Amino acid sequence: MRLTRRMIVIAATVAVALSGVITFGAPSNAEELKKVTVRLAFSYNGHRSPYLLGVDKGFYKEAGLDVEVLEGKGVTSSMQLVAAQQDTFAIIDPPSLMLGVAQGMPIKQVAQLYQTSPNALISWPEQNIKEPADLVGKKVATLQGDMTTTMLYALLAKNGIDSSKVQIIASDGGTRNQTFLAKRTEAITGFPNDSLLSLSDAAEVKLNHFTYASFGVDTMGDGIAAHTETVENSPEIVAAFVKATLRAYDYALQNPEESIDALLKRSPSRKKAVEVEKLKATAALLHAKGSEGDTVGFSVKERWEATQALMKEFGGLNTTVEDVTTYYTNDFIH
C-alpha cells in the first residue's frame, strides 16, 4: 500500500504519542530539537507576536523544534529565502505565493492563517476618501515591492479607475509612514490590524480606512509557506511547526497581553496598548466561510480559485495552474 504524506504525518504523530510524551514531539533534551527558522514579512509587531509567544511559552520546543523568528525585508525577499532553503518557513499571503510559483519558486502553503486579507487604504479624515473612486487626483504612500501596493493597482483596475489618475508613491516602510504623517500624501496603504492603529496613535486622530475586500479584491492574508522539498521530505517538521503555531495563535488571542509582552522583549519601543489592539483585531481574519468545521489554518479551495482568477485578471499573474492545490496543502491541518 502506498503511504500518502497525510498518512505519514498522522503516523508520526501517533508514534510520538505512544512513546509516552505528553505534548506533540517533545524531545527528552535540547540536543534533539530540530532547528528551523521562520521569516516574517517585516519587523516584529503585535499581530505576528504569537510566533514569539510560541518560542517563549515553549510550544515549539514541546513540538521538538528550536525555532528562530526572524524579521524580514518584504514578502518577496522572504519567499526567495525559503525558495533558496536559507529559511525553513516564511509568512506569505496567497497572491504573493502565486506570483512566486509563477516565477519558478518551489514553495507551498502549509497553513492558511488569515482567511481574509487585511489589505486596506488608510486616509486622513478630512479627505473624505470612502471608496476607490475618491482616490482620483490624490497621492497614496505605499511600500516598494509590497503586496499592498500590487493589490492597490488591482483594486483600481477592478473598480474601473485609471491608475495614472492616482499618484502612487512607493518607498520603504519608514519613509512611507513619515510621508503620510507629514501630510505629503492624502492616503497610505496598510492593514487595519497593524499600521491603521499605529498611525492613528502617532497622529492622535482616528484615521479613516476601507479594505480592498469591501470593493471586490477579496483575497487572503498571512499563511505559512515552506519549500516543496521540506513538505515532501520532512513532513514531521512541517506538522510540528504548524501545530505549535496554531496553538500559539489560540493561546495568544486568549491572552493578548502576554503575547505582546513577548513582542516587547524584542521591541521595547513599541506601545503595549496599541500592539494589544493589533492582535485583538487579528482574530476576525482567521475564519472563513467554507472552512471544514471552521478550522483555523485550513485552505478553502474555492478561495484559492477565486484569488487566482482575480490575480490573473488584475494582479499581474501571467501563469496559472489548473489545480490550485499546487499552491497549498491541508495535510498538516487537523
From TrEMBL:
Residues 49-258 form the SsuA/THI5-like domain. InterPro entries: NMT1/THI5, SsuA/THI5. GO terms for biological process: thiamine biosynthetic process. It holds the Pfam family NMT1. GO terms for molecular function: metal ion binding; transferase activity. Keywords: Iron, Metal-binding, Pyridoxal phosphate, Thiamine biosynthesis, Transferase. Pathway: Cofactor biosynthesis; thiamine diphosphate biosynthesis. It catalyses: N(6)-(pyridoxal phosphate)-L-lysyl-[4-amino-5-hydroxymethyl-2-methylpyrimidine phosphate synthase] + L-histidyl-[4-amino-5-hydroxymethyl-2-methylpyrimidine phosphate synthase] + 2 Fe(3+) + 4 H2O = L-lysyl-[4-amino-5-hydroxymethyl-2-methylpyrimidine phosphate synthase] + (2S)-2-amino-5-hydroxy-4-oxopentanoyl-[4-amino-5-hydroxymethyl-2-methylpyrimidine phosphate synthase] + 4-amino-2-methyl-5-(phosphooxymethyl)pyrimidine + 3-oxopropanoate + 2 Fe(2+) + 2 H(+). It comes from the Bacteria. Homodimer. Responsible for the formation of the pyrimidine heterocycle in the thiamine biosynthesis pathway. Catalyzes the formation of hydroxymethylpyrimidine phosphate (HMP-P) from histidine and pyridoxal phosphate (PLP). The protein uses PLP and the active site histidine to form HMP-P, generating an inactive enzyme. The enzyme can only undergo a single turnover, which suggests it is a suicide enzyme. Belongs to the NMT1/THI5 family. This is Thiamine pyrimidine synthase. It comes from Limibacillus halophilus. The lineage of its organism: Bacteria, Pseudomonadati, Pseudomonadota, Alphaproteobacteria, Rhodospirillales.
